[in-house]
Amino acid sequence: MKLDKHRSTHTTEKEFGGTLGATCVPLFLPLTVLYLLSVCRSPGASLLQWPPPLPPTSQLWHPLAPVLLLGWLALQSFLYMLPVGKVAEGMVLRDGSRLKYPINGFHSFCISAILLGLTLWLGMPLGYLFELLFPLAACSIGMSFLLSLYLYLRSFWATNQALSSGGNTGNPLYDFFMGRELNPRIGSFDLKYFCELRPGLMGWVVINLAMLMKEVELRDSPSFSMLLVNGFQLLYVMDALWNEEAVLTTMDIVHDGFGFMLVFGDLAWVPFTYSLQATFLVIHPQSLSTIGGIAIIALNGVGYYIFRRSNSQKNQFRRDPHSSQCGRPGDHFHSNGEAPLSVRLVGTRPSP
User: Where does the record place the region Disordered (predicted)?
Assistant: First the structure.
């Protein structure tokens, strides 16, 4: 890459409270992750308890944590590059080109599941991850800062057309947070696309399973509540990976630069806060009746149906606004290009 010698056009509009927000969020969000983990493991499990149950610094480090984190990232990177599945084109970029993306996330998930099952069969104590949650979270937070710094520095060798519209203000703190470069790649390896669904989302499933195994260690069998949490959230992750191509039309890929906001969300926020329900149940088991469980399953089924229908139609509209699946041509949309929720759900639009 050559250093771009042309003066770039800086963005003037700012989000998230501008520079102040972009400075505070990277400081407070990591503390929030550690705080929420501490609350789940505390006897009271209350957000209102004082003083807040932040973990001592001695619990934030374990030599095994960086090994596991780097090993997981290396495994997912290797699976990302496997020549399996199809290759899809992304949306049209400002220069008129389209990037190509491997659609093999579900394949990677299946291979990861087989490898995980093999290690469990060999006797790996997966439940020990419960003891490593704090150091794993701390390492993921540290990795988020390091990767974000690398992305910010390398963006100065990117062309103007490769920069995102929202992270090119000229303010270092804000641009570090939002991300200057839209689609940073090392060769054909797309860093943003890789992080979007793979290490964090699949890591969430692994943490959930580890919490289930820890509950088995403590109580000889998993609770109904733990099984439901694992099952529902596994369905969500599998759905995302099965429909991986749809992520190519989302704002994260099409519009947002790859900076701390997305890096931290992908590598730290998703795996360690989305798994809080399972973490909570290890320390605070909740009994659930059969009728209550059936009602929850039914409610989740309805919610999943709405979620899948609306997201499928939204993706179709982004790719082809004139598709028959998006309703009648000429009907109204919101100013941001989104169809109303009722439109995305039932497939019809009100007449103008």
Answer: 315-352
Nearest to 204 by CA among 240, 254, 255, 164: 240
Assigned token pair, 84: 């399996």
Residue 141 shares a structural domain with residue 167: yes
| Residues of the domain holding 317 | 296-352
- Number of structural domains the chain divides into: 2
| SS3 sequence of 334-345 | CCCCCCCHHHHH
Instruction: From residue 267, give the alpha-carbon distance in Å to each of 115, 204, 262, 283, 351.
Output: 21, 10, 8, 25, 44
Residue 317 binned pLDDT confidence (cut-offs 50, 70, 90): confident
State whether residue 186 is helix, strand or coil. strand
Residue 45, Ramachandran bin (φ over 0: left; ψ between -120 and 50: alpha; else beta) = left
Mean pLDDT (the chain) is: 87
Q: Which pair of tokens denotes residue 61?
A: 């480090």
The DSSP string of 243-261 is: TGGGGGGSHHHHT---SHH
d(CA 169, CA 126): 45
- DSSP structural state of residue 89: E
| Whether pTM exceeds 0.70 | yes
Asked whether the predicted pLDDT for residue 335 surpasses 50, the reply is no
* Cα gap 247→88, rounded to integer Å: 11
298-309 tens-digit pLDDT: 999 999 999 999
Which of 121, 129, 117 lies closest to 67, judged by CA? 129
Last residue of a domain, one of 240, 261, 288: 288
pLDDT bracket for residue 2 (50, 70, 90): very low
Residue 351 pLDDT greater than 60, yes or no: no
Tokens matching residue 133: 């949650």
Residues 93 and 207 in one domain: yes
Q: Are residues 95 and 206 in the same domain?
A: yes
Cβ–Cβ < 8 Å for 162, 182 = yes
- Among 199, 200, 68, 41, smallest CA distance to 125 is for 68
Instruction: Dihedral sign for Cα 198, 203, 205, 206, please.
Output: positive
Give residue 51's pLDDT band: very low, low, confident or very high (50, 70, 90): confident
